[in-house]
Design brief:
This protein is mostly helical and 99 residues long. The protein has six helices and no strands. It is globular.
Length: 99
């Protein structure tokens, strides 16, 4: 069972990233929010929201991924460079604090 704060936080991220438009179900997203964000290219969304910005739009994510594939030599094996969320960011999001 997830806390109300947990559901509210990840619900905000889910809506801000427009993941429903990307055919992602909220219950599936909640099973591994970071994994879903990473797989879909929205790994910067939590930091954007914490800093008061909106995350990239889905089309902007596609452009960013195309640029990463072209310019980043280190990839995840599928051709996409996916930066890992920094440990401090994960902790900050889990604690609900701001930078």
């Amino acid at each position: 069972m997830c806390s109300d704060e947990y559901l509210e936080y990840w619900g905000t991220v889910f809506i801000a990233c427009r993941l429903l438009e990307q055919d992602m179900a909220f219950d599936e997203f909640l099973k591994d929010p970071w994994g879903c964000l990473k797989a879909m290219g929205f790994q910067s969304a939590p930091l954007s929201l914490v800093c008061g910005y909106r995350p990239l739009l889905p089309r902007q994510v596609q452009v960013a991924q195309a640029l990463w594939r072209r310019w980043e030599p280190e990839t995840d094996g599928g051709g996409r460079a996916i930066p890992e969320p920094d440990e401090w960011l994960v902790r900050m999001v889990e604690e609900g604090s701001k930078p």
